[in-house]
Amino acid sequence: MIRVVALLLALTPLIAETNAERGKRVINEAVAALGGDQFLHMQDRVEEGRAYSFYRERISGLAHAKIYTRYLIRPEPPVPGLVEVRERQAFGGKAGENAILFTDGKGYDVTFRGARLLLDDVLERYKETTLRNIFYILRQRLGEPELTFTSRGADVLDNRSVEIVEIADADNRVVTVYFSTVSKLPVRQSTFRRDRITNLKVEEVTLFTKYRDVGQGLMWPYDIQRQRDGEKIFEIFSESVKINQDLKDDLFTLPANLKILKPMK
């Protein structure tokens, strides 16, 4: 009888935990598992490896990819809907050729011929993908007004136990994230968006696997796979991930002598 009472007393804090409290606890555990303060103060990141694009589950493109990411100093509190990051996606081996550049609210397709502004829908897709990315949320959006974390309980995903947290913001973006109960790291996220042409709801899923320590105790997934309505559309296998490389402005700005091409119609 004494053992039963002791067990009930031990479980009381968990039983009394609200969905909001449990959701925030899972988020805090995830930040700690990713590296804690090292993760929260990560200045930049360079991911290098093989990137694949897919069409109807078949490979439609393969390239050597090098993705440069630099986090900007965010306002306090964070501003809803504001993307505070610069990114350069270089393909083919050289940072200066065949790159996609996202900087200061604009996007460019950069080649040896010059730079061409990306179409508005491509830029909007990048913005939405970034704002819904769990790593960006944890690094840049914690403390944002009306950003909520609600536990949806525990479940089993691919034969492993997970905690499920629904993240919602002031603009009604909702992302459901699955965290391993063992490692505390995010392993899956899903979100729904409207197709700009058909206006139908589209489910976008991202899977995170093969975590490694990339320095200073910071963990990062080396295999990231994206799916749309159940079909694989993109995957990157990183061969190396480096953090805090003191990336310079010239990576994220256009050279003054680079030709600006007319936007594609």
Briefly, what is this?
This protein is 21% helix and 46% strand.
Characterize the structure shown.
The model has no long low-confidence stretch (mean pLDDT 91). The chain is built from five helices and 14 strands. The protein has helices at 2-16, 19-34, 37-40, 120-132, 134-141; strands at 44-55, 58-71, 85-91, 99-103, 106-111, 114-117, 148-157, 160-168, 174-180, 186-194, 201-213, 219-228, 231-243, 260-261. The radius of gyration is 20 Å and the shape is globular. With 265 residues, it is an alpha+beta fold. The protein has one domain: outer membrane lipoprotein receptor (LolB), chain A, CATH 2.50.20. It has a 14-stranded mixed β-sheet, with helices on one face.
The CATH architecture: Clam
Sketch the topology as an H/E string, one letter per element: HHHEEEEEEHHEEEEEEEE
**Overall mean confidence score, pLDDT:** 91
Q: For the CA atoms, what is the radius of gyration?
A: 20 Å
CATH superfamily descriptor:
Lipoprotein localisation LolA/LolB/LppX
Spatial arrangement of strands, main beta sheet = 7-8-9-10-11-12-13-1-2-3-4-5-6-14
Question: Which short descriptors sum up this protein?
Answer:
265 residues, outer membrane lipoprotein receptor (LolB), chain A, 5 helices, alpha+beta, 14-stranded mixed beta sheet
Topology:
Layout: H1 2-16, H2 19-34, H3 37-40, E1 44-55, E2 58-71, E3 85-91, E4 99-103, E5 106-111, E6 114-117, H4 120-132, H5 134-141, E7 148-157, E8 160-168, E9 174-180, E10 186-194, E11 201-213, E12 219-228, E13 231-243, E14 260-261
Parallel strand pairs: 6-14
Antiparallel strand pairs: 1-2, 1-13, 2-3, 3-4, 4-5, 5-6, 7-8, 8-9, 9-10, 10-11, 11-12, 12-13
